[in-house]
Amino acid sequence: MNRKRLIAVGGTLVLAVILAGHISTAGGQARAGLDDIVLAGEACTSILVGKDASTDGSVMTTHTCDCGTCDWTWRHVPAADHKPGSTRKIYHVSQYKTWPPSEGLKWDLYKKDFAGLEIPEVPHTYAYHHGMFGYMNDKQVSIGESTIGCQRKMQNPTPAAKLDLTMLTLLGMERAGTAREAIQVMGSLAEKYGYGFHDDGEMLAVADPKEAWIFEIMPAGPLWTPESGKPGAVWCAQRVPDDHVSVCPNESRIGEIDLDNKDFFMASPNVVSLAVDMGYYDPKGGKPFNWKKAYSPVEGSATSTNGRIQRLWRFFDIVAPSKKFKPETPNMDLPFSVKPDAKVSVQDVMNMTRDRSYGTPFDPVLGIRGGPFKNPNYYRGTRVIDHGLAEYSTVTQSRAGLPDAIGGIVWIAFGSQDTSCYMPLYAGMTEIPKSFMVGDHWTFSRDSVRWAFDYADFHVQVAYSEAIKDVLAAQAKYEGETITRIPEIDQQALALYKKKPAEAAKFLTGFALNNVTTVVNAWWKLGDDLLVKYNRLYLYNAEKRGFSRGQPATPDWWKKAVRAFDILIEPEKK
């Protein structure tokens, strides 16, 4: 995600321009030099887990859609057969543009932005679920996203670039039966028709039941035209080893490449030549070509940037503490992937998406940062994995040994991960909840799933350290117990599938819709309960019809800090 934010600091307005998580050649990170100021940074952290690194053999990806003002609605697109000679219209789909609900829904209105291109349609397109991007199709091909930026003169916002990132992922969902096919589909179309317009450097975590890949794509510059005969994009993909995990926290992750090793690398034909032409790489310099150093370099480490780029280090610190990666290590020197100390479960991955770097030097509640109730949303000088501004987050599972309709699951949590609940959508579902299809930031609606979670989240903020305990209990009940039930649901669906696949699809759709209804109702009630329980910063007990005055109590250290600060403030003259 990328956006511009005007930040007020001490009465002075500071313009922090954050484009795709980078400023020009900083390649993924803002360099405003404002160590003590909260920058509206990136938080699209995408985690990848190989099949032999997970506890159940599933291949996993994640995505945090972190815009803060973007559309959060989802759609299901059914499979379709197409007649010979059919064409597929291409549209420009901005990640950030929204319309008021009174005007209509984004996934209807975006068709007003026709790119002026129709491409040959394929005979059959797969069914898939999508939100901001395509996330899972009925062949278990899954995608997660993270903006990584690129060198400034690579950007191509011109009409010549017909494809932006959202459109590419939808085409990948429609046309690819494996992760490798998805990469080739998206890469080849971008080469032929030009990539950019709304977007620049992007990473997609592309997976299927066998493999997980990091696929990075960038424009080829504003002077590119189809008539040039050159590729309209440059891209590279590297496979995550099956027993490894990897992550992309808005930084390019692919380093040196070996295109002779076709089992682990793929790339566009201009992968090196474009860097040479643009002056980013000198083949006579004696150094091997390095993708990220050429196209999207990042300077600094977790320590040197005061935590602004600490998510990469933090992920490795979580999954492989035995490796003792140092936060002083430059991010560009951290490995592409790592074998975790222990295999990770889907619940582990969900918990990683909620990580706030507690207990590290970049802890957002360290000292007085979080206020009296240790609220991690007060201080955002460091960028943590759970940023608190998510539209939604996804965890995808692609699982071998099951029919695709049953093996693929997209777990989705709306709003901030710490106060939300992951809910499963099977690949074989034929519809998604109506509440997923409506709503925006500016119009409160009890018909929109997102508002249920924002409603509860809002009431958590008042007394975070206490109220989050209520949320954790709800997550254990509605998320944890659902994860435990999945093997049973799988087997019930499998029995139906063997008799009639359509019956299995009906069963999985019913299960998911019922689960969403249960969870959303529970979160509306959770919001109500939190409002009553912590009303006016007293502690109300609804069962006993009593309350504790002065509870939840503010800690003594905070009171001392207030008194110490008061001494520094001169009384106002009347």
Can you characterise this structure?
This protein starts with a strand and ends in a 6-residue tail after the last helix. The relative contact order is 0.12. The N terminus is likely disordered. The strands form seven sheets. It has a six-stranded antiparallel beta sheet. A five-stranded antiparallel beta sheet has the order 12-13-14-15-17, covered by helices on one side. It has 574 residues and is α+β, with helices and mostly antiparallel strands. The protein has one domain. The chain has twelve helices and 22 strands. The radius of gyration is 24 Å and the shape is globular. The longest helix has 36 residues. Helix 2 crosses helix 3 and helix 10 packs antiparallel against helix 11.
